[in-house]
Design goal:
The complex is a heterodimer. Chain A is mostly helical. In chain A, about 75% of the residues lie in helices and about 0% in strands. The radius of gyration of chain A is 19 Å and the shape is globular. In chain B, helix 3 crosses helix 4, helix 3 packs across helix 5 and helix 4 crosses helix 5. Classes of the chains: A mainly alpha, B alpha+beta.
């Protein structure tokens, strides 16, 4: 494990230049460049807000902003987009980089780290855009927002853990790459991002406890929409789960790494 | 300590009845692969600093698998590779280049992929730019490059910092011939400074010109490891070898190894060199008229016999070769027990040095069609300069000269 971090440190130059190159390549030939990364989720929010606000807006208790539903949506989307991006990219990571892995010698661990770095960069841009939109809609930044730092770490750990497990499996069993996007869609709709929790019938609500993204998204709602501290116990449990998955993912990655090149 | 030690190296590709069994193995389940396909087995060799080693073998012999395990992209199934130094490979040039970024940015990135820090690259970036010689294109996006320009930049990065071991795939031609010369100069320069070369090639010439040792791989094992001339002779015989034919090696008195191969319908008897007076000779004067006499015994009836010979210099580089088919002297329908004698007459317009003669008996125009017998080092002779003016080189091309002012 220690050598893993050492090789990562030795290749930090490569990790940073990969993240920068990916970012720069995006700007290279399009006028809006990196802005598309923000426009995409914001457009999605706008669509949901337009279509669903009349249906769902009345169901949001405890907030008097008339754009409450849009704020609620954006807060949830911020968390979900990071989660989904990391998983989606880890899923096909080793297959996409197969050629490079077959032909160059470099620490393979740099690949998921590059994904995390570049996803966090997108996340940061989206967050800044979100703050601007929030301010325009009358919601100002508050001190509770510092909670987002540990939350971001937790959601990243969860996503990398799941992403590594699935990405490794996908190298050997390609069906994984087909089924995961479907499952992610299902998971998205089973997490209260688009709708408030209170529209779920009481007897099903306990099922939500099993969804590790539920405490995350709820915490984002608490912080960004309601400006209050999140529920620490739920987050703590979820963080333990995330770390467990992350360790499992790293373990599988270590075991599979020598064989991956054989089948790519 | 050796620079590179390969011990008992083997690589198997494993197939499992179900991929879940493979995954179970990671977690300690004792599942057996349903198939094991060994592409390399029991490879042993050690390489010392400053050596230059050619790796030859037919397609599928395991050359690239071996190199991948030496560079570390592929993990061995058994045995180990121990490297004491940095390896650079010129196998896949331009890996990791992003088309939308400039040459300069890509250089930083590609060198990072090789494990260099940005500071270290900044120290050599000017050398890289100068070596690539692509002018202002260096700061243009790589997508605007011709493939030759991309190769130049990629080669310049790959060899920016002298490695302890350099792996070169010779089939990979680096752009135009000017740059090829330049890149080979750099490779030779590295060699002079102590870099060990590992060269993969099919080209006899470059293996013998650059290497002092060659390793022949065949069906995943090391078939021969030795002097380039011997290994290349063996390799050529191996290619020429058809069904039912055998390859024999015989050590000559001076320690060099003679390769004899073929199907055996005809065999080479005595091979001698005679001067104009008909006396057998071992020393030939530059430009002297000589005749190469080859006696052949026919072992079983054959429809056609072509006799070819090849004169090689002391490094085994071909100097001149031809055969009776090209010369228009052919004997058809030979019976078992017959003896045939050929006499090739020529002027020995050769430079000073030692030469060997390889002889081949076959049909049609080359020994690749049907090879009755191929024998290296049938005869060794020396060319000495007694009568001509001083000159250097392999060939004697007497000029006349005019000068004016």
């Amino acid at each position: 494990m220690l050598e893993l971090f050492k090789s990562l440190w030795d290749y930090r130059g490569f990790v940073f230049s990969s993240i920068r190159n990916e970012f720069a390549a995006r700007f290279a030939r399009s006028r809006l460049g990196g802005l598309w990364m923000i426009i995409n989720p914001l457009a999605q929010v706008a669509i949901y807000a337009l279509v669903l606000s009349n249906v769902l807006a009345a169901k949001l208790p405890g907030i008097d902003n008339k754009y409450a539903y849009a704020l609620y949506l954006m807060a949830g989307m911020l968390a979900w987009s990071l989660f989904a991006e990391v998983i989606g990219r880890c899923l096909t990571l080793f297959i996409d980089q197969g050629n490079l892995m077959k032909k160059m010698r470099f620490p393979r661990i740099t690949l998921p780290v590059i994904v995390v770095g570049s996803s966090l960069l997108n996340y940061l841009l989206l967050f800044v855009a979100l703050l601007v939109v929030f301010a325009l809609l009358g919601q100002w930044p508050n001190l509770q927002m510092f909670w987002l730092i540990p939350l971001t770490v937790a959601v990243t750990a969860l996503a990398v853990g799941i992403g590594l497990i699935l990405g490794v499996l996908n190298v050997f069993i390609r069906d994984v790459g087909q089924v995961v996007p479907i499952l992610l869609q299902v998971w998205f709709w089973f997490t209260p991002v688009v709708y408030p929790l209170n529209i779920i019938p009481e007897k099903f609500r306990s099922l939500m406890e099993l969804n590790p993204m539920f405490p995350i998204v709820s915490a984002y709602h608490d912080i960004l929409v309601y400006a209050k501290a999140p529920d620490i116990t739920q987050i703590a449990v979820m963080t333990v789960v995330a770390l467990g998955l992350l360790l499992l993912g790293l373990f599988m990655f270590r075991r599979a790494a020598p064989e991956m090149v054989d089948v790519l | 300590m050796s620079l590179l030690t390969v011990s008992n190296l083997g690589k198997a590709y494993r197939v499992y009845a179900s991929e879940f069994q493979r995954i179970g193995r990671w977690f300690g389940l004792n599942t057996k692969p349903s198939e094991e396909h060994w592409v390399l087995k029991n490879i042993n060799f050690a390489i010392e600093p400053g050596e230059a080693i050619g790796i030859v073998g037919q397609n599928g012999a395991g050359k690239s698998t071996l190199l991948k395990m030496i560079t570390g992209t592929l993990q061995p199934t058994e045995g180990r590779v121990q490297v004491n130094g940095r390896i650079a490979a010129i196998l896949e040039l331009g890996m990791g280049f992003t088309p939308d970024l400039t040459g300069r940015q890509n250089v930083y990135h590609a060198a990072g992929l090789m494990g260099f820090s940005a500071d270290k690259i900044s120290g050599v970036i000017n050398d890289i730019e100068a070596f690539a010689e692509i002018g202002s294109y260096f700061d243009e996006p790589v997508r605007t490059y011709s493939s030759g320009m991309q190769m130049r930049v990629a080669f310049a990065v790959a060899t920016a910092i002298r490695p302890e071991i350099l792996i070169v795939d010779e089939a990979l031609s680096v752009g135009d011939s000017y740059f090829q010369h330049k890149s080979f100069d750099r490779i030779r320069e590295f060699q002079a400074q102590g870099t060990t070369l590992l060269i993969v090639s099919h080209d006899r010439g470059s293996i013998q010109a650059l290497c002092n040792r060659a390793i022949l791989l065949e069906k995943g094992t090391v078939l021969k490891d030795g002097k380039p001339e011997e290994v290349m002779d063996f390799y050529n015989a191996l290619i020429a070898e058809k069904e039912n034919s055998t390859v024999q090696l015989r050590e000559l008195e001076d320690g060099s190894i003679q390769t004899r191969s073929g199907t055996g319908e005809a065999s080479i008897g005595t091979v001698t060199l005679h001067n104009a007076a008909g006396a057998p000779i071992e020393f030939v004067s530059v430009g002297e008229n000589v005749s190469l006499r080859i006696n052949i015994t026919i072992n079983s009836a054959i429809p056609e016999l072509v006799v070819g010979y090849l004169i090689k210099d002391r490094l085994g580089q071909p100097v001149f070769g031809t055969n009776s088919h090209h010369l228009g002297c052919k004997i058809d329908d030979l019976d078992a027990g017959e003896t045939v004698s050929y006499s090739f007459n020529f002027a020995a317009n050769l430079g000073v040095g030692s030469y060997s003669v390889a002889v081949a008996l076959h049909t049609s125009d080359s020994h690749l069609s049907r090879n009755y017998e191929w024998m290296d080092l049938t005869l060794v002779f020396n060319v000495v300069n007694i009568s001509q003016r001083e000159f250097v080189g392999l060939a004697w091309m007497p000029p006349t000269v005019e000068c004016s002012r």
